[in-house]
């Protein structure tokens, strides 16, 4: 059964850090590029970061230099280390394959506010 379970979100202040995790099953994790996506209130979902099957990372301009994507193929888990968080990072964060498939998890909410 395919499953994506995100966790690690929370409410933090600008400049704080968070680490998101996404535990997967049934999606052939190690054979897929994986991505973190986010959807802010009133906006479309956007791609934030991608990890290739070999662990090469790419980032959107908005998070470059602040976020780090990583993966553990043995644990079938994707991570997103988020540093120097800004209010504009407030969103529901999801993981999925890249390109994304139809199945989405419930997401984990990140709120950045002073």
Summarize it.
The chain has no helices and ten strands. By secondary structure, it is mainly β.
Overall description:
With 114 residues, the chain is mainly β. Helix content is 0%, strand content 48%. It is built from no helices and ten strands. The chain has a six-stranded mixed beta sheet, with no helix packed on it. It has a four-stranded antiparallel beta sheet with strand order 1-3-8-7, with no helix packed on it.
SSE arrangement:
Blueprint: E1 3-7, E2 10-12, E3 18-25, E4 34-39, E5 46-51, E6 57-59, E7 67-72, E8 77-82, E9 91-97, E10 108-112
Sheet with the most strands, sense and barrel status: 6 strands, mixed
Oligomer: single chain
Overall, the morphology is: globular
Helix/strand class = mainly beta
Widest sheet: strand order? 2-10-9-4-5-6
The sequence of SSEs as H and E is EEEEEEEEEE
Radius of gyration: 13 Å
Provide tags for this entry.
single chain; 114 residues; mainly beta; six-stranded mixed β-sheet; four-stranded antiparallel β-sheet; 0% helix
